[in-house]
């Protein structure tokens, strides 16, 4: 196959995805493996048309509150893994969290995302109390949780306390690949069970995966896309793998902007109404990563509302941007950056149309 024929084949697969929202596993593999810069540009044009059809030029903002970096898990890629004795651990109090929400509300945020490690100190009772307090204080806001694997009962209690959305990345669909990234007590099957539990509990559910994580193949990414098609989540968070110096993967190569953007575009065509963030990790490895993510089909950014003194302690990976335009205080600059590429930050809850 000549380069020109290869490019036409890839574009034909992109067209098929755009028209049918469905590809065979072999087609996903070919599309990802044989992608070209020209095919990527073609994909991004289609992705922008699709996201503008459903969401216009609006960019939704989420106020991220990283409230604990304690974690019982030992994921091999993560900087706050249990075995990292160099991590400076912290927990925010209920009052701290509500103060972050107060500041965020004044800035215009109408969604708060509570993200943390799997910290046993935050029992169902404590976490439900915090969620209820946010719901009562900010009744016009959405509350999103990202606190890992919990029981179906726990998810139900948190939903009844007032949580609207839940983010739980499946990380990788393939069981063998998952096992190479996590300790034996964790499993891909349990992670996926949690996601189905979340959907059954009534949450707007989000999942996602890392791009360029060690041992990842086009086959793995094809399986991830097939899983997204089955789960049909309201949100998908993907970002490039960025190594952390105190983990077993410290010397592994990181994921690329190029492949991350390509996967963003594919997700937009697969799930036209999905809420799709341009992540902090993308902005970490490329100063214009957020803008490129938006132009590839993303429609969400998540500035940081965490107290300044803890931002540098929530280090999932090296060189994470902790004070710049991902910070809530720089919201005006972020608005300017989005406007330069033809988009605008909007102040509302930004619910998914896919509910």
Structural class: alpha/beta
Average pLDDT number: 93
Question: Cα-atom Rg, whole angstroms?
Answer: 19 Å
Distance between the termini: 43 Å
Shape: globular
In percent, how helical is the residue content?
Answer: 40-55%
Low-confidence stretches: none
Fold and architecture overview:
The structure is a single chain. With 355 residues, the chain is α/β, with parallel strands linked by helices. The chain is built from 14 helices and 11 strands. Helix 1 (3-20) packs parallel to helix 3 (37-55) and helix 4 (94-107) runs parallel beside helix 5 (124-137). It is globular. The mean pLDDT is 93.
Describe the structure concisely:
The chain has 355 residues and is α/β, with parallel strands linked by helices. Helices cover 45% and strands 11% of the residues. The strands form three sheets. The protein has a six-stranded parallel beta sheet. Strands 10-1-11 form a three-stranded parallel beta sheet, covered by helices on one side. A two-stranded parallel ribbon has the order 7-9.
